[in-house]
C-alpha cells in the first residue's frame, strides 16, 4: 500500500500509518519545515513516525507535489492540513481534489480534515459537492468532535 499524507507536520498521522505492516511506503508533504522541527524537539512521541524507513519527507506545497506525482500512485491520501483560510484555501478547492483524484489508484481512498460540522457547514457542503463531482463514485462523510479544534489556532476564545 502506498500512502500520501498532506500536511500532518506534527507526525501524529504518520506515526499511526507506520504501525501497519501492509503499508509499503509513506510520502508526507508538509509545507512548513518549522512545524516538523518544533515537533521533533517538543513532541517526540508524535515525531517518532518520521524515523520509519518507509517515510519520504517532501517539504513544499502539496498542490504542486500532487501535480507532479505519477498518475494512480497512491492507495490512500490523508489530508491533515491547516485551517482552509489564507494560503491553505486552495486545499478545499476543485483543482486540489482533481489532483488527488489523479494521484489515487482506482479504488483509492481519500480522508480529508474538514473543519467543524457545527461551525463550518457551508465549507463541508462545498467540499462534499466538489468531491461528488470529481470522484464520481461514493463519497461518504463522517465526523468526530475534537474539543480543541476547530480553528483554535485563530480563535482561542471558542475554547473558553
TrEMBL record:
Origin: domain of life: Eukaryota
Gene Ontology biological process terms, A to Z: polyamine biosynthetic process
PANTHER family: AMINOPROPYL TRANSFERASE, SPERMIDINE/SPERMINE SYNTHASE
Gene source species: Hordeum vulgare subsp. vulgare
Keyword Transferase among record annotations: yes
UniProt entry keywords in alphabetical sequence: Transferase
Cited InterPro entries: PABS, PABS_CS, SAM-dependent_MTases_sf, Spermi_synthase
Protein name: Predicted protein
Entry GO MF terms: transferase activity
PROSITE patterns: PABS_1, PABS_2
Family: Belongs to the spermidine/spermine synthase family.
Amino acid at each position: 500500500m502506498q500512502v500520501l499524507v498532506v500536511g500532518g507536520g506534527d507526525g501524529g498521522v504518520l506515526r499511526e500509518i507506520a504501525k501497519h505492516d501492509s503499508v509499503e511506503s509513506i510520502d508526507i508533504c508538509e509545507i512548513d519545515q518549522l512545524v516538523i522541527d518544533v515537533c521533533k524537539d517538543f513532541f517526540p512521541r508524535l515525531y517518532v513516525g518520521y524515523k520509519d524507513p518507509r517515510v519520504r519527507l517532501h517539504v513544499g506545497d502539496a498542490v504542486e507535489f500532487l501535480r507532479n506525482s505519477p498518475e494512480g500512485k497512491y492507495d490512500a491520501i490523508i489530508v491533515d492540513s491547516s485551517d482552509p483560510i489564507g494560503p491553505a484555501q486552495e486545499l478545499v478547492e476543485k483543482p486540489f481534489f482533481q489532483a488527488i483524484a489523479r494521484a489515487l489508484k482506482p479504488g483509492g481512498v481519500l480522508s480529508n480534515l474538514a473543519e467543524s460540522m457545527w461551525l463550518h457547514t457551508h465549507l463541508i457542503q462545498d467540499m462534499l459537492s466538489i468531491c461528488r463531482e470529481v470522484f464520481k463514485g461514493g463519497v461518504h462523510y463522517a465526523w468526530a468532535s475534537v474539543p480543541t479544534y476547530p480553528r483554535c489556532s485563530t480563535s482561542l476564545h471558542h475554547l473558553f
